Amino acid sequence: MRNFALALFFICMQQQLNAETIIGFSEEGSLYQKQIETDYDRSLNALEMDKWMKYLSKEPHHVGSLAGKENAEYIAQLFESWGFDVEIEEYYVLIPTPMIRELSLISPTTYKATLTEDSLVEDPSTFVRENLLPPYNAFSIDGKVEGELVFVNYGMPQDYEILDRYGIDVKGKIAIAKYGKSWRGIKPKLAGEKGAIATIIYSDPADDGYGMGDVYPKGPFKNDSAVQRGSVMDMPTYPGDVLTPGIGATKTAERLSFEEATTITKIPVLPISYRDALPLLSAMGGPAVPKEWRGGLPITYHLGPGPAKVKLNLKFNWQTTTAYNVIAKLNGSLYPDEWVIRGNHHDGWNHGAADPISGMVALLAEAKSVAKLAKSGKRPARTIIYAAWDAEEVGLIGSTEWAEEHADELKEHVVAYLNTDGNSRGFVNIGGSHVLERFFNQIIEEVRDPLMDISLKERKRADLKLNNNSAQKRKDAEKRSDIRINPLGSGSDYTPFLQHLGISSANISFGGEARDGSYHTLYDTYEHYTTWRDPNLIYGVSLAQVAGRATLRLANSERLPFEFKGFADNIDLYIGELEELADSMRVDTKDKNSMIIDGTYTAALDPTKTISPPTIKDSVPYFNFSPLKNALAELKESATNFETVGQINKKSTKELNNLLYTVERLMIRDEGLPKREWYKHYIYAPGFYTGYGVKTIPAVREAIEEREYDQVEKQIMLSAEVIENITARIDVIVELLK
Amino acid sequence: MRNFALALFFICMQQQLNAETIIGFSEEGSLYQKQIETDYDRSLNALEMDKWMKYLSKEPHHVGSLAGKENAEYIAQLFESWGFDVEIEEYYVLIPTPMIRELSLISPTTYKATLTEDSLVEDPSTFVRENLLPPYNAFSIDGKVEGELVFVNYGMPQDYEILDRYGIDVKGKIAIAKYGKSWRGIKPKLAGEKGAIATIIYSDPADDGYGMGDVYPKGPFKNDSAVQRGSVMDMPTYPGDVLTPGIGATKTAERLSFEEATTITKIPVLPISYRDALPLLSAMGGPAVPKEWRGGLPITYHLGPGPAKVKLNLKFNWQTTTAYNVIAKLNGSLYPDEWVIRGNHHDGWNHGAADPISGMVALLAEAKSVAKLAKSGKRPARTIIYAAWDAEEVGLIGSTEWAEEHADELKEHVVAYLNTDGNSRGFVNIGGSHVLERFFNQIIEEVRDPLMDISLKERKRADLKLNNNSAQKRKDAEKRSDIRINPLGSGSDYTPFLQHLGISSANISFGGEARDGSYHTLYDTYEHYTTWRDPNLIYGVSLAQVAGRATLRLANSERLPFEFKGFADNIDLYIGELEELADSMRVDTKDKNSMIIDGTYTAALDPTKTISPPTIKDSVPYFNFSPLKNALAELKESATNFETVGQINKKSTKELNNLLYTVERLMIRDEGLPKREWYKHYIYAPGFYTGYGVKTIPAVREAIEEREYDQVEKQIMLSAEVIENITARIDVIVELLK
Hints:
- 2 copies of one chain form a homodimer.
- With 738 residues, chain A is an alpha/beta fold.
- The first copy, chain A, folds into 3 domains: 292 residues, Aminopeptidase (3-Layer(aba) Sandwich), CATH 3.40.630; 225 residues, 3-Layer(bba) Sandwich (Glucose Oxidase, domain 1), CATH 3.50.30; 136 residues, Transferrin receptor-like, dimerisation domain (Transcription Elongation Factor S-II, Chain A, Up-down Bundle).
- Chain A contains 23 helices and 16 strands.
- The longest helix of chain A has 33 residues.
- Chain A is globular, with a radius of gyration of 26 Å.
- Chain A starts with a helix and ends with a helix.
């Protein structure tokens, strides 16, 4: 009965919310905005989106390709035809494309890797191979090496700890790693740090092939020839053009030399299919891998080193290439100096129907509908900029260069950046700045799921309650009225806006019901997408509904819809996690150390095998978290004060709105994060050793995780200062509102 | 430091124990017994054990085979040559052997299953095929059927709940199940109850093949032709001859008709290799299996039903067959009427080097050494009976018939039954009656690991601390001074003694470091065993040391070494588990039901797939556990009293010892457990729907698990009564000792 009562409570609450005004709007403003949104929805046209998708994904359209340029021009023309001021902004960036890709097993048996993906009669697009980028990892350095293989599982730090226990290292060897768990670029980065001379990455069928479901074309998953391309640029250090960190790669920009570009890998790296991996892995010897490392190939996996020995030869054409960002502007009727940016990249690895066109066509539908509203006299109050970025796949280059070049004006004018990328079918996913958590919750309370008669929020809550692996998230879903939006790490074009410039950002997508293996393969085609991902682009329309509402509400709200109670609650969660992390590492380190010392590990080991106990680690001291906790206590109080005075009233001024949208700016520190000054956000960052995955309060978290204990309290002070500044700002806002 | 202190504590305790007297012995008796054990150890000869193993496993020696009879005679001669009174006791039991085994895929593709295991040049024994039993499941009924396949995962009750959610049932279909998780006989039992017309069981390579490690002969695991044979007799109802439940299958015994034998399966069942399973599974359609159901074959697994359709034809020769139990007796010098029985079966599925010969040769070594002691004037005080059972593999038949025939005298005379079966390498495993927990702990504190300079107990503790999946067991290993011995379910010859007659029993083995796939295959050979399991039978000697000490101490102790504090502590654990089980089922049922009702399940489901929410279950009421808890409180008090007065003194009388060794008899109730009167033990039983796996306080536990709520409190009363009777007995003993 408890849950039933809870459900009733949510239903009542929701009804109340529907009757409520929209956050940031007066009652009348709310009613008018809802009319606008009804008109807006009416113009969204799935058939047209489908047509655009078919057109934009007809050929490979990566940065530097002819089709890429044509797509940019096509998109620009569309924007122009709808009445936007359009510019194509060009950047001149270093892009590697493959010249030589050779991989052979030379001992104890021989095999020459095919390194190609099969064309399939069921999918005509897979025969369109002109300008096709073959499987490679962009920003792998050139190299010709020969060496024994070592199997490194997913190539994460903890995997090397296990190898250490077997007495196996990768020095002078070639690491073969499974795709997955960490962002791909971490694999060669770590392998290189450990002394490997090259890295091979393959998609294991257990994770990304027949183990997951039927393979393409019978099902959506990777067939045995499919290879995931992808950038291995060291994006957690800085994304964008490798030669122009921090500045726009204009024609005249001052550039680093090739040798100075630290984000190019130190060792060559090549992605392969599981068909090509099988002979290599089959030829390996050494101990069988630990249970958790096993994959889905019909063999016993071995750690090596060797006897399998391979020869790898990679050579790239390092060419300055033009990236075309399409920037379409609709000036605001009331506050033209306050900008809402809505972006999606247009370049794909190949046909790129899902990634990025499925998000791009939603953006186009949004822009067309907004333009129609504008023409009908409902021009948004603030300026809206639609951006179609180039060169995202190779390293967020188009968006990063643009954000770097225009840094000052963006910091001044931008209210928020809203990103999409590949879309799919299922549950809504929103990641972003928590000052917008309540704002997005209200939107997903109102937008209905296209296939079920419930709101997106209800479906999402059900998914979190039933399908989430994290007990915390399941509990939240049950108890917390707002769905937590996810903090953002990296992986798409929001990164320069959020983490470099401190612009409140969000990333929106649907997914969870159409997992597939087309990502970055030849098979990411129109046929694949419309068969397996989102037939008839039903959820493409939902995406346009959510992202469009977010854009329009940010553009039209009287007072900008930022809010701090949800933000404070998330900060509370992160600080709790940090304390727990330190505590559990302390206990774990102590327990393990004592079991190493007292001989438990030795006693439990098989004396006939070669595995050793782990090595002793420095014990984890207690840290003073009180600066963060005191800062949090004050933040919570101020957030509550803001809520108390926060009803819409006459005091919504330009000054107030500016104070609101620049709260996120206070989350960045000019000196940046330790070891990577480009990343300046002290609440959200991608992990230095995990890649896309987010680290919240990253300076503190990574100091603990990487056992740099002498850094922890310094970073606690700096992060607490950031929170204190936010609190001080909220207090100013509250004073203004009183 | 805490753990270090704990380690020190254990070391001190151990030293104290070494100085201590042996449980059940006076100080002088202890010293003398230790001398005896030194002599005993000296006679154990690994080379001789190896020779016996080679001889006894040279040919297939299943019940009814010529080699089986010869092995029995060989063992009898050995015993005789050492001075035992030997009898070969014969039983006339119904044994099926295969006449027709045919399995074909007939649609949509065709494949004829080979149903044979490959001979390997690396293992000469695999060419010895005369009298070889081909892969089959004994006590499958005959049948010729044709039907579509349904994949049922491991064929457990919860698997059928998942299939229900997909709207798939097995009615009129053929269930194909993976070996593992449950005892094999449960699979056709449940499939039959659900309406399947046959069951196919195969060994999935992820669980029992290349997924686990290199396959035979390169490594120890199942190659693609290997098949696990095994009985599918419904042993959780009653083991032993299917026609003579409860009585010895002597020539003149009154027998059931074939039709009345409820332990023969209702539907035909056949085990196959993963080589034969692959074409069948590849031909299946329907939804892809849930993530947790995936196996290690290089395909996407599907649930069916069909389109794969198979034809199965099984016909067996149901023949009355003679089983030969070898019974070797050494009369006790002081208490010839008090018997210690030490048994191991001698029949194997084929060569059976590991199962059962590796245990059998330890028993032989023990018997020879004890006989030598007797000849040198150190004849044990009590009678020792060594038993080599026949027909264990097909259903614990030899031991069960003997125990049934001799029930009355065994109940009167037997102090304890000590069992071994297949042995391996690694950590000591002791399962059994908890009145012997402290007794066995003392033994494993004294016997050293043969490869490391620590006691068996220290190694076992390290293994439990580091490698055990259960948090409870890891905690116990850290905090509890005695290692918990495991409660016994079924799976070897202790069952009739423990669970039918209420004789305190134990099962001893080593393992954990040499997992392999030879179990019940053609590859369970001398070559396999001595290469991969226990080369040079090093742990075979350890087994003889532990089992021999247990036998000799039970035979020589002044006061029998039963103890109740450990027993009470384990009962405490079980009662806690029962309460937790009811509580967690209650919460889980309530949560699931409310999420079904409030639409959460529906909302979280993919509307394009055919899976439905689970069905609503009756809510779980609160039960009155107080009778068990009151009984436990009294038991604990009496156990403490026993410990207080329990020092060895002059009062060790025959009466006292009899009261001690018949405490276990009080754990059985004549009416037996619900639905299976043969099983009479109210503390330990194999699971009715899990097979070998133990259920403690089974009448209560299974009533809760099977949601027979109206039975729970009745069973609590009956089980509490059993505990009360034990307490009353302990009180009598305490009075005697005062």
